Predict the structure.
Amino acid sequence: MKCKRARGGTVLIYAIIILLMCISVFPLLYLIVQSFAPAGEVNIRLFPSRLTLESYRSLFQATGTKTPLSWIRALGNSFLIGLVTTAASVIVGLATGYSLTKLKRFSGAGFVRNTLLFQMFFPVVMLLVPRYMLLRNFSNTYTGMLLPMIVSTWAVFMYINYFRTIPDTVFEAARIDGAGILQEIRYIALPSTKSITTIVALTVFMGRWNELMWDMVISPDERYQTLNVLLSTKINMLTRQQGVLYAASVLLIVPIVALFLIFSKNFKEGINFMLK
């Protein structure tokens, strides 16, 4: 009797999990399917009668006042800014985390660490106006779009927690052998942080890829628009071509999904470390 109840409870739990998964995944699947639907069937049929690239072709063709170059340039801007921000955040985060945990002669490490972590309590929107006032001279430039994002407090926090798990004796042995700070970072710190670096890089890239508010404020010029900004500024124009809007949204999702699939193993290892 108890065995049957336990089995029934297990089945119920799995049924609930499957239901929640379907609810969370359905909007994404719907988005992808509708992006391949013919123009006359978008949002009319759940499963289109045929699949077509019509919406994607329209996306890169002239649409109102937009040209194919505008879409391609916006996509390129998103990749450029995302990759540069990610690389800078990883480098700064790794170096800062190492310095605050392994350089004993840095007497102000505790104060700096607490100051950095204190910033995590404030919503990003609170810093929007101060950032703009400081960087308004860099309006409509890549510099203005990049500067506030190259230091990720969350990345620093992750590296600090990771370096605390590595015994100091490892680095002390390297110093006895004559290794300098750069050699310690290159041959010890960097190789050992592969999993954490992967999850930090993916998270930072995803956050920067999805950024909208700051980019709209600092760089309204079309030459510096990211794909997110381009979509948001032209959403009224695209409401009559919803298939095109779906196609553009799929383009926003593809890089994140591709990166996750490529680095899924390291991503899972990083998640396991976070849960310890």
Remarks:
- The chain has a mean pLDDT of 79.
- The radius of gyration is 24 Å.
